[in-house]
What does this fold into?
Amino acid sequence: MIPVITIDGPSGAGKGTVAQNLADHLGFHLLDSGAVYRAAALHALNCQATIDDESSVMAALESLKATFQPDPDGVKAYLNGRDVTHHLRLETTASAASKVAVMSSVRASLLDEQRSFRQLPGLVADGRDMGTVVFPDASLKVFLSASVEVRALRRAKQLKDKGIETTMASLLQEIGARDERDSSREHSPLVAAHDALIIDSSDLSIRAVVAKIVSALPMLTVAE
It folds into this structure.
């Protein structure tokens, strides 16, 4: 079976950077599931769908043609052949993605797309339900967390580096609202898998987090 390492956790916990570093270290493929949902949300917005209306969003997704390519910053995303990577990183898109992600029909429609990333020699998948729903048979499941304040600071730096202005107040509010939506949604809520390795990254460097994950791999590899 093709090995999969899942990294779940809330926004700003460092999942994307950790997943990318881990995939590079292992020579594995990378799935940024958030990019898949953001691409779906962006397409729905472009189609002028009502983001809070499940039937409206699903009608828009019938014409969704998204492709993803490896990139030094994670993945490049294309909608109908147009590079929309920058648009996927905007807070408006991320907020819309969090809203459509609570919809069961949307999650079901994107399940096969995410599972198609599972290819040899292996996959590192980051998201919010990778270990609980998408890849329940993963070789190793990680749940990465951090305090809200630390996550807001990290997000502010990411946005600043991309030339996007924001405020800590707005980020704290948005992250708190997103956490509430993700953890309380009826379908595939954000929870740690019962067998997940839980890591609080608040006071850890990316290198330290990756080292913790790598150190947990040998015994799981032997157990397979």
Notes: Strands lie at 4-8, 29-32, 66-71, 74-79, 82-83, 123-127, 140-145, 197-200. Residues 129 and 155 are 21 Å apart (CA to CA). The chain has one domain: 4-212. The first strand starts at residue 4 and ends at 8.
